[in-house]
Design brief:
By secondary structure, the chain is α/β, with parallel strands linked by helices. It has 9 helices and 12 strands. The chain has 2 domains: 3-66, no CATH class; 149-350. The protein has helices spanning 3-20, 25-40, 46-90, 110-136, 174-181, 201-204, 230-242, 280-288, 331-343; strands spanning 149-150, 158-160, 163-164, 193-194, 214-217, 247-252, 268-273, 294-299, 316-319, 322-323, 326-327, 347-350. An 8-stranded mixed sheet has the order 1-2-5-6-7-8-9-12, with helices on one face. The chain has a two-stranded antiparallel ribbon with strand order 3-4. Helix 1 (3-20) packs across helix 3 and helix 2 (25-40) packs across helix 3. Residues 78-108 and 129-143 have low confidence and may be disordered.
Length: 365
């Protein structure tokens, strides 16, 4: 997405949010003008943005009125229909099916009763035989299929967790809180757990007709943590390779282990979390040593200012706030990172509550 397109998207979003919060068009125009200049190095007259906010406010108001009028029209039409029906009844009319004589069942003859009795007797014997046969059968267990979970994460379509648990012990970890909350799903708590019963999910999950095929692998774990046996990692990677209909997204805080399994197929997106400056250098070194079509970093949460020395290594940068507890990144730090990406033509994906830019390294949303 070009910078001017991102700017336009930002303006549209901020106007909408401002109006929903009850802010005046004057205030919205002035505020957006200041931030557009900081974020996109573009000057826009506050009066122009104020006029745009005022028009959007008018359009929204008209849409609400039209919706209300439509509801009123539908209610009038429904009431009229009911009134017409009631008038028919007052004039002695009949609703569909009303007043029809019911058919009285014919009396059974003794011959018919006798035949019926014989049929019932034969049926009873057949049912007894079937029951005896079933009792002698050995019940065969039906294997249950494991499938992907639909994901609420904006930049993927599904999640798959053949491993759960992690030993990084990050204070903001959402996965750890989920494991504590849903103890029946995570019997070992947040200790690393290899879930063999989930290994066939790539094979057993039907591919959606809409083409959405991005799978976040181990959203509840770090597959490449130092504690993970190489054999288990290789098992999961092999299953992914056997099912190339999916795009697999990997994310770790230990990217140095990526070199152990490189090169990676084109449908493997390899990523690393860079939440603070100290992770930048080891991440850049690690990614220089691997072969992958898509290399990305996730700056989520953004805990401070992040400056890359070799940001052009990457195809994609995800930016997001802290969610546990919620904490927005400093806007000056956000601006700095955005310009590092834009100056090097790197795709950016940010949450809607930041600037709303939602790009992918390959394809569209």
């Amino acid at each position: 997405m070009a910078k001017h397109e991102a700017c336009e998207l930002y303006i549209e979003q901020q106007i909408k949010e401002g109006l929903e919060e009850g802010k005046t068009p004057y205030y919205i125009g002035k505020s957006i003008s200041e931030w557009v200049e900081k974020l996109f190095e573009t000057k826009i007259n506050p009066k122009t943005l104020e006029t745009r906010a005022y028009r959007q406010k008018e359009n929204t108001s008209n849409e609400v009125k039209e919706s209300d009028n439509q509801s009123i029209d539908e209610e009038i039409e429904e009431n009229t229909s009911i009134d017409n029906e009631e008038q028919k009844m007052d004039r002695g009319g009949k609703r569909d099916g009303a007043g029809r004589p019911s058919k009285e069942p014919k009396e059974k003859t003794s011959e018919t009763e006798e035949k019926t009795s014989k049929i019932e007797e034969k049926t009873s014997k057949i049912e007894e035989t079937e029951t005896e046969e079933k009792e002698t059968e050995v019940e065969q267990p039906v294997p249950s299929k494991s499938t992907f979970n639909k994901s609420e994460i904006d930049w993927c379509d599904f999640s798959w967790n053949p491993v759960t648990g992690c030993l990084h012990d990050c204070p903001y970890c959402y996965a750890k809180n989920m494991a504590r909350r849903f103890k029946d799903l995570y019997p070992n708590g947040f200790s690393p757990d290899f879930r063999e019963d989930r290994l066939q999910a790539p094979k057993d999950t039907p591919l959606p007709k809409n083409g959405k095929n991005k799978v976040f692998v181990c959203s509840m774990a770090d597959l490449f943590g130092d504690w993970m046996p190489s054999t288990q990692i290789q098992t999961i990677l092999d299953i992914c390779k056997e099912n190339p209909q999916w795009t697999y997204i990997f994310l770790t805080k230990n990217p140095k282990r990526y070199a152990e399994f490189s090169p990676y197929p084109d449908n493997f997106w390899m990523g690393a979390t860079v939440d603070e400056q100290k992770r930048v250098k080891p991440t850049e070194i690690a990614f220089l040593g691997i072969e992958a079509k898509v290399k990305f970093v996730s700056v989520e949460p953004m805990l401070g200012k992040i400056e890359f020395k070799n940001i052009d290594i990457f195809n994609w940068v995800i930016i997001g706030p802290q969610t546990n507890p919620t904490k927005q990144p400093d806007k000056e730090n956000l601006i700095s990172l955005l310009h590092q990406c834009w100056d090097n033509n790197i795709k950016v994906f940010s949450k809607d509550n930041l600037i709303g830019v939602r790009e992918l390294p390959i394809g569209d949303m």
